[in-house]
Amino acid sequence: MSEQKVIAVCGKGGVGKTAFTAMLTKVLMEKAPGKLLVVDADPALGLNYAIGRESETTIGSIREMVLQKAEKSTKNELTELADSVEYLTAQALDEKDNFSFLAMGRMNTIGCFCSINDLLKNAIENIMHSFEIVLIDGEAGLEQINRQVIEKIDTLILITDTSFRGLQTVRHIKKMVDEGLVPACKNLGVVFNRAQSDVSALKEFAEKEHIHVIGSVPYDKQVEQFDLEGRSLLELPENNPALKAVAKCIETAESTGK
Ligand SMILES: Nc1ncnc2c1ncn2[C@@H]1O[C@H](COP(=O)(O)OP(=O)(O)OP(=O)(O)O)[C@@H](O)[C@H]1O
Ligand SMILES: [Mg+2]
User: Fold this and answer.
1) Which of 111, 121, 157, 213 has its Cβ near the most Cβ atoms within 10 Å?
2) 63 CA to middle of ligand 2, Å?
3) Taking all residues of the chain, what is their mean pLDDT, rounded to a whole number?
4) Band of the pLDDT at 148, cuts 50, 70, 90?
């Protein structure tokens, strides 16, 4: 297997992380069918609708079930349970020909079965390692990504709308990266989403903050309409302008350094 590539999408609430991730899923699954794992790392979930998957089992729900069992187990039962963690975790993986999907769900901590937690971590790691590209839809900050098993991010895409507040979140995340509070990442940059007007002032601001500008994705009526209807964005036509812009963004992000 060639070296694994991890792409994470982050940004303030509602800026279009999920829509961007879904469109990027379409781009990547066509480039590398079967080699892509898409991860919903937002505890509130929702990416599954945008990519036409129905999975209800999350890593969080499996973890809770395993930990609940562990609390009531005898020593022997605990050993048995430990042996089945890998198998149980794999139940959360929604595998299809074009790409696979994994929802992290909520990670409530109940009890402390450190050995079980370690086994779960290993199991997730094993799942992730079997894919060439891992694409993560994150939440506002990088908390989930940080707490989980992602050791490194190759490309961190910071999404913002064209608001000043969105850019402040981007600045905050960049600061966290610079301070080493999140996994190391090779490429980092901002994407202006739902752009309806000239973004040159925002670009200037980003550059002043030493944040690489990857590009922008236009406001697109069809994207909004699909989301309104709960329709998968994978069904967008190839010539959709937002989809084309997302394809360009990933090309730029990967060809330029931090
Ligand atoms: N380029 C775009 N053009 C038009 N509408 C868009 C675009 N990108 C996102 N949207 C719309 O903006 C809304 C928010 O998008 P989305 O759910 O992807 O944001 P999010 O950052 O994932 O939100 P959350 O933080 O709640 O997870 C949705 O209604 C979506 O259809
Ligand atoms: Mg989202």
Assistant:
1) 157
2) 22
3) 89
4) low
In a domain, 67, yes or no: no
Q: C-alpha distances in angstroms, 246 versus 43, 121, 159?
A: 24, 31, 11
pLDDT of residue 111: 55
SS3 7: strand
Q: Which of 60-64, 76-80, 104-108, 186-190 has the lowest mean pLDDT?
A: 104-108
Which tens digits make up the pLDDT trace of 77-109? Answer: 989 998 899 999 999 999 998 999 999 888 766
pTM: 0.93
162 Cβ below 6 A of ligand 1:
no
77 lies in some domain = no
CA–CA distance from 80 to each of 59, 60, 84 (Å)? 19, 20, 6
Is residue 64 one of the residues assigned to a domain?
A: no
- Report CA(40)–ligand 2 centroid distance (Å): 9
Q: Which atom of ligand 1 is nearest to the CA of 242?
A: 1
CATH number at residue 163: 3.40.50.300
Q: How far is the CA of 126 from the centre of ligand 1 (A)?
A: 31
CB atoms within 10 A of CB 69: 17
d(CA 17, CA 35): 22
* Averaged pLDDT, 58-68: 89
Total tally of structural domains belonging to the chain: 1
CA distance linking residue 66 with residue 78, whole number of Å: 10
The answer to whether residue 71 sits within a structural domain is no
CA of 16 to the centre of ligand 1 (A): 3
- Structure token digits, residue 231: 């329709």
Candidate of 10, 12, 15, 23 to mutate for ligand 1, largest count of ligand atoms within 8 Å of Cβ = 15
